[in-house]
Amino acid sequence: MFGDTKAFSSFSVDDLAKAKEFYGGTLGLRVSDSEFGVVFLHPANGDSRIMVYPKDNHAPANFTVLNFPVDDIDQAVDALTARGVRFERYDGFKQDEKGIVRDEMGPGIAWFTDPAGNIIAVLQES
């Protein structure tokens, strides 16, 4: 039924202008406005897009809403830190001084939040 449709993900924020600045300015994604009062994030992988919409009673997700795979997690974390991004620390994970989890259970991963408190991850590919 949906095999040929272009599905997309979405999440809410409490301030659309701050979200546009963060995702476009800090993270460097292409951001486009919509006539419906939402914005779309456009990752570099072609046709995919992610809708970000304002919500008056927004509550940040308590799970990762967006993952960014990178070739070099140390380089990505250092670059984001230089842009003012603060990495989160979570109980139950052994994280290094940069906030990166490095273990045999999965890829190197580090989490940060957007201005609305939504959790985002950067993770090492392969």
TrEMBL record:
Coiled coil stretches, renumbered: none
Domain VOC: 5-125
Pfam families for this protein: Glyoxalase (PF00903)
Designated name of the protein: VOC domain-containing protein
Protein species of origin: Phytohabitans aurantiacus
Organismal lineage: Bacteria, Bacillati, Actinomycetota, Actinomycetes, Micromonosporales
